[in-house]
Amino acid sequence: MDRLPEGELQRTKTEGIRFVGHDSYFDPPLAATVVAEGFARWSPELRKEFDTNAHNGQIGQLLVKETDLLRIWETHLRPGERVPVHRHVLDYSWIALTGGRVRQHTSDGTTREITLVRGQDLHFHLSRGQYHLYDVKNIGDELLSFLTVEIKGGENEPLDL
């Protein structure tokens, strides 16, 4: 796989996306479509939530375990449910326990619709001062479940919960 500078977003020819950085990978490819850019179709409430939650470190519904080395989050979203805007500052891995479809708004004003496959996993490396800020909504017809594992001891300090 070709590599980009750490943390950059790579768009594939089919508008799928890959987050690529040091040790960042996924297989199968994440199937995503950009459906809006420049904050188009964002409600005033959603834009405000990005300001209000700019440092929200609760990246999942349930913190299953926390140690000196990691945090493990579990999330189960029924159709229409969402994880509010949250901020990732630690390196993290994400694993889809079920397949489904999500809509994601990101801090750069982009809205994506993403198809997830059961067993799909992603790993993200965040350099010093780098972060991901977004929400996730289940737009599918079935329960969507995933685990997120944050790895402590990287280039950024964990956010307070």
| Spatial arrangement of strands, main beta sheet | 3-9-8-11-6
Structural class: mainly beta
Q: How far apart are the first and last residues' alpha carbons, in Å?
A: 36 Å
Apparent shape: globular
Q: What percent of residues adopt helix (DSSP H or I)?
A: under 10%
The largest pleated sheet is described as: 5 strands, antiparallel
Poorly predicted runs of 5 or more residues: 1-26
Order of helices and strands: EEEHEEEEEEEEE
Count, helices: 1
Beta strand %: 35-45%
Strand runs, count = 12
Rg calculated over all Cα atoms = 15 Å
Integer average pLDDT: 85
Q: What are the key terms here?
A:
44% strand, mainly beta, five-stranded antiparallel beta sheet, 161 residues, globular
Describe the structure.
This protein has 161 residues and is mainly beta. It is built from one helix and twelve strands. The protein has one helix spanning 44-52, and strands at 8-11, 17-20, 31-36, 62-66, 70-77, 82-88, 91-96, 100-105, 111-116, 121-124, 132-138, 144-151. The protein has a five-stranded antiparallel β-sheet with strand order 3-9-8-11-6, with no helix packed on it. A hairpin with a 5-residue loop joins strand 8 (100-105) and strand 9 (111-116). It is globular, with a radius of gyration of 15 Å. Residues 1-26 have low confidence and may be disordered.
